[in-house]
Structure formats: C-alpha cells, structure tokens
Amino acid sequence: MTSERAPAVELRARVLAEVASTPSATRVEYNRRVLLVAAIGALATVAVFMGMGGISFGTRPVEMIAFTVGFGVVAVAVLTRLSSRSGAGRSMLGRPRGVLLAAVVGSAPLLAIVAVLATMLWPEPAAEHVGGGAHLACGAMSVLQGALPLVALLLPRRGSDPVHPVVTGAALGMTAGAWTVVMAYLRCPHADALHCLLAHVVPTLILTALGAVLGWVFLRVRPTPG
Fold first, then answer.
1. Is the dihedral of CA 31, 32, 37, 43 positive or negative?
2. What CA–CA distances, in Å, run from 91 to 4, 12, 49, 96, 209?
3. What is the pLDDT of residues 167-180, one digit of tens each?
4. From the CB of residue 84, how many other CB atoms can be counted at a distance below 10 Å?
5. Is the backbone of residue 155 left (phi > 0), alpha (psi -120 to 50) or beta?
6. pTM above 0.85, yes or no
7. Which tens digit of pLDDT belongs to each residue from 67-98?
C-alpha cells in the first residue's frame, strides 16, 4: 500500500513546491481574467457568426431547430461546468481525469444521436439531398467558428494544469465543439442526417484533438529554471 501511494505523495509534493515557487493570481483576479477573456471571445464569436451569414432556418421547422439547439445548449452547459476549475470543489488539481475523459468520449456520440433523432422526428426537411461540397464548406466553417471559443477557454488558464493538461485541453476543445454545434444548427439550413454528422458533429472531434494539443502547449506547468 505504501509503495502504491508513493507516486501520489511525490506528485502532490512536486505540485505544492511548484505552486509555492510560482507567483499566482488571487481567486478574484483569476475570475476577473476569465470573465474578461470569455466576454471578448463571446463578442468575437458572435461577430464571426453574424459575418458568416448569421441565422438561417431554410426549410426546417422552428421545433426542429429548437430541439437540436436546445440539446446543444445543454451539452455546452454541462461541458463548461465540468471543464471549469472553479467548479472542481476543493481540489487544487481540478476535475479528476476520469470525469473529463467521460465527458469528452460521451459528448460526440450523444450529439450524433440527437442529429439522427431530429431527422426521424422531422423527416420532410431531412429528405433534402446535400452534396459533398456543402459538407466540406459547412464543416470548415464549424471548425473556424469553434476555434474562437477554444482560444477564449484556453488563454486565461495557461500554465494552470500540472496533472493532466492534455485531457483538460481536450475537454475544453469538446466544450468549444458544443458551442459550434449550437451555431451550426442556427446558421445551417440543411437537415440531412449525414450532413449534420459530417459538418456539425465531426468538427467537435477536430476541436477536441486541437484542444488536447493546445492543452499540452499552454496549460501544463513548466518547471521553474534553476
């Protein structure tokens, strides 16, 4: 039992030493920084969204849009809460790795199920054929629109995760992906199930991978020289 606990004790000691040697902002300063960057990121995201055409219903009924957007908003709320350091209780290391991994792994399939279920509930607008060019263009737009929320989520937390920065970054990427799903269902007039999966849900996986890479680059705690 002692040998099993040794790595955890060493990790805790290393983290405490690193925290003690690195000047850190107070909780008020940290929250203020997060809110400022989030506000700037939200405004920039809305500006890009409107600049790319804004809301477009197409032939989709309002009920279908409310259904898909509503589930997207729920995913955003849950993922934002799970990936938030302020919601991690008293742990200085943030959410447990398993919780973040479960959120990352489970979100995309749930969003995919919602997309397919929407086409089953409203088959008429979903019957429209969508070409491959539309899949690619809409998917690229989804990734671009999700990149801004991802940056806004990452920037205020740089250098703050000494334990699992890659997993935290992936969770933030999936959170940004959920935001882009909401925007996609608001701006994209197509309701075809394949299109929704390829152009709305698959970009969440791309943003998750990007978040994992950026998490390793920006979120990890670097050793203090000397």
1. positive
2. 20, 11, 36, 9, 26
3. 999 999 999 999 99
4. 17
5. alpha
6. no
7. 999 999 999 889 988 877 654 444 555 678 88
